[in-house]
Specification:
The protein has 1 helix and 10 strands; from the N terminus they run αββββββββββ. Strands 1, 2, 3, 4 and 6 form a 5-stranded antiparallel sheet that branches.
């Protein structure tokens, strides 16, 4: 009887540790999934621009200015939109065919991702008029944003952050790097293995 109690006690400790480790991984899994979904959104916009012969854009709406504070609410929302012209569109319509015309990962929103945020992005002036905070694709699939919107590395970078990791002082984020040609690369701050299927995606490659 005593031996059985000891064995059960040891098993309880092991199970408890295992659950704790798995729970710690949940925010990382969610951040990877959000990054993959955002990459797919960008790729879908590029494909749509080519297929329809009009501009499309990823309109960034909210980002998290406190990604290093795990106690603050998560934030992040964006829109997938189609323009009314091949150049300098005046009106934009949400691309709702995939059910992701409007995406928000904030609490209570349609794609809530607990503990995950879209970091505030660098200044995006966008092409033409009214495209501030937007990445705009031409009917050729190229990004129309001015050179000033691209970083010194030649990419527009969006970062998906695992806020929970900052409890332990760990910077766990995934950068989505959008090139002038419209290709998207996912890069993890930890390692390629942590980011899942890290690589490039374009209209011709898929994700």
């Amino acid at each position: 009887m005593l031996e059985l109690v000891v064995v059960l006690g040891i098993m309880a400790v092991i199970v408890g540790l295992g659950i704790g480790m798995i729970t710690d991984q949940f925010p990382r899994f969610r951040s990877v999934q959000v990054a993959k979904d955002l990459r797919q959104d960008v790729t879908s916009l590029r494909t749509t621009a080519i297929e329809r012969g009009v501009e499309t854009r990823l309109l960034l709406e909210t980002g998290d200015s406190s990604v290093k504070d795990p106690s603050s609410p998560n934030a992040g929302s964006w829109r997938l939109q189609v323009g009314n012209a091949a150049m300098a569109s005046k009106t934009w319509t949400d691309l709702n065919e995939s059910g992701r015309g409007v995406v928000s990962i904030e609490e209570g929103a349609n794609h809530y991702a607990k503990g995950v945020s879209l970091a505030e992005w660098e200044n995006l002036s966008g092409p033409w008029f009214g495209n501030e905070s937007a990445i705009v694709f031409s009917p050729r699939g190229w990004v129309e944003n001015p050179d000033g919107d691209f970083g010194t590395d030649g990419y527009i970078t969006l970062s998906v952050v695992n806020k929970v990791a900052w409890k332990d002082g760990v910077d766990d984020h995934i950068d989505l790097k959008v090139s002038r040609s419209g290709n998207v690369t996912m890069v993890s701050s930890l390692s390629s293995r942590d980011a899942g299927s890290v690589g490039t995606a374009s209209a011709s490659e898929g994700s």
